[in-house]
């Protein structure tokens, strides 16, 4: 067996590659060898070096059986079949052969792709919020794609983050494709203190920061010409993306809204607070509602098309689902009646509520 010794004209240069694997000790035979290891198509890029292209053409090619022979290759134009000495972008025919014309020629093809200088692209990276001593998933919701590399992956450098100390830290995401193009994105991780009660200062952000976040979200989910009803539904759909997790944290509504919208996790307070923040920013009047008789549950009523309706993006039981979007009093009362575990699910103090909900 003898591996490829390749003589090839690449970009007006003649390269001789020696990739011999000695067949020492093999008996001399008159049997004709065959050319093996040729790939059906070889793909390289216009900015690859002649040496790289020559290696790509020779990799794994050898003769087996019979007397060892050198294997050579011709690069042919697909237009007229002439041998080429300079490569440009496009496709070419390859002919692998030996000096003995009796040895069967093996056909293949060569594709020269345009130079790839496009870096991978991240999506889903965002600033994160975590409370002192908590945990954070840096990869949650983050993906990376590349224009050519289907198997591109990414790394996360969170060595600067200290979850035991208050502060804002950088976390860096890096992805490099097979062509060496690198993308680097840095996000902020805010480690915050948990505040109890109705402290006027947010444990997560200032009111201005929450407003800026809401404005950014509304720019993504609202379109010009939407009615208030359409805006309210877009907000409902966005808030409903929050994943319900039990929480015993007692923070003010600004912090709860920011946490819900940035982490997409939280309990009914996060749903209520996120809805309140987005509705207010969108100019839709709302009023906060609290369940009577416990356990605690919060939602709001909203003013749409001249009437007040119930609005609660918090999910209900999977076995007894109820989409509480612009619901009347009769509708929420009917749903509550189906909940033997919480027959007061949407019970609230109608007498003290300053607005009359549509019945």
Q: Can you tell me about this structure?
A:
Strand 19 and strand 20 (307-312) form a beta hairpin. The chain is built from 6 helices and 21 strands. The chain has helices at 50-58, 207-221, 228-239, 253-263, 268-281, 329-337, and strands spanning 2-3, 5-10, 13-18, 34-36, 41-45, 62-64, 72-77, 90-97, 106-113, 121-123, 128-131, 143-145, 154-157, 167-176, 182-192, 243-244, 265-266, 286-290, 298-304, 307-312, 324-327. The protein has 3 domains: 2-113, Immunoglobulins (Immunoglobulin-like, Sandwich); 117-193, Immunoglobulins (Immunoglobulin-like), CATH 2.60.40; 204-359, C8orf32 fold (Roll). The strands form 7 sheets. A 4-stranded mixed β-sheet has the order 5-9-8-7, with helices on one face. A 4-stranded mixed β-sheet has the order 11-15-14-13. A 4-stranded antiparallel β-sheet has the order 18-19-20-21, sandwiched between helices. With 359 residues, it is an alpha+beta fold. The termini are far apart. Helix 3 (228-239) packs antiparallel against helix 5 and helix 4 crosses helix 5.
Percentage of helical residues? 10-25%
Q: How much is the radius of gyration in Å? A: 34 Å
CATH fold node name of the largest domain: C8orf32 fold
Based on helices, strands and strand pairing, what is the structural class? Answer: alpha+beta
CATH architecture of the largest domain: Roll
Order of helices and strands: EEEEEHEEEEEEEEEEHHEHEHEEEEH
Order of strands in the sheet with the most strands? 5-9-8-7
């Amino acid at each position: 067996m003898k591996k490829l010794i390749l003589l090839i004209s690449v970009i007006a240069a003649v390269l001789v590659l020696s990739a011999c694997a000695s067949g020492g000790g093999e008996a001399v035979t008159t049997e004709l060898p065959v050319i093996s290891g040729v790939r059906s198509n070889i793909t390289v890029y216009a900015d690859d070096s002649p040496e790289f292209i020559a290696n790509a053409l020779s990799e794994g090619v050898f003769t087996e059986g019979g007397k060892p022979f050198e294997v050579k290759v011709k690069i042919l134009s697909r237009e007229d079949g002439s041998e080429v000495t300079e490569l440009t972008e496009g496709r070419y025919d390859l002919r692998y052969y030996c000096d003995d014309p009796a040895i069967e020629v093996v056909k293949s093809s060569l594709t020269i792709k345009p130079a790839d200088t496009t870096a991978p692209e991240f999506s889903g990276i965002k600033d994160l919020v975590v409370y002192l001593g908590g945990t954070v998933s840096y990869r949650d919701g983050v993906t990376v794609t590349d224009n050519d590399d289907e198997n591109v992956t990414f790394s996360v450098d969170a060595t600067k983050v200290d979850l035991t100390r208050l502060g804002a830290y950088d976390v860096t995401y890096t992805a490099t494709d097979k062509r060496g193009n690198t993308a680097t994105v840095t996000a902020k991780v805010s480690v915050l203190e948990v505040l109890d009660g109705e402290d006027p200062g947010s444990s997560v952000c200032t009111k201005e920061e929450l407003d800026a976040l809401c404005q950014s979200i509304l720019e993504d989910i609202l379109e010009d010409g939407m009615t208030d009803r359409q805006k309210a539904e877009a907000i409902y759909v966005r808030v409903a993306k929050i994943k319900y997790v039990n929480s015993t944290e007692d923070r003010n509504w600004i912090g709860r809204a920011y946490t819900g919208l940035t982490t997409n996790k939280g309990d009914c307070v996060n749903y209520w607070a996120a809805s309140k923040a987005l509705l207010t920013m969108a100019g839709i009047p709302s009023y906060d509602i609290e369940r009577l008789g416990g356990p605690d549950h919060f939602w709001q009523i909203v003013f749409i098309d001249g009437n007040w309706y119930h609005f609660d993006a918090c999910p209900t039981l999977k076995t007894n689902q109820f989409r509480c979007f612009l619901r009347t009093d009769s509708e929420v009362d009917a749903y509550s009646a189906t909940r033997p575990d919480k027959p007061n699910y949407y019970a609230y103090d109608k007498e003290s509520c300053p607005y009359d909900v549509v019945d």
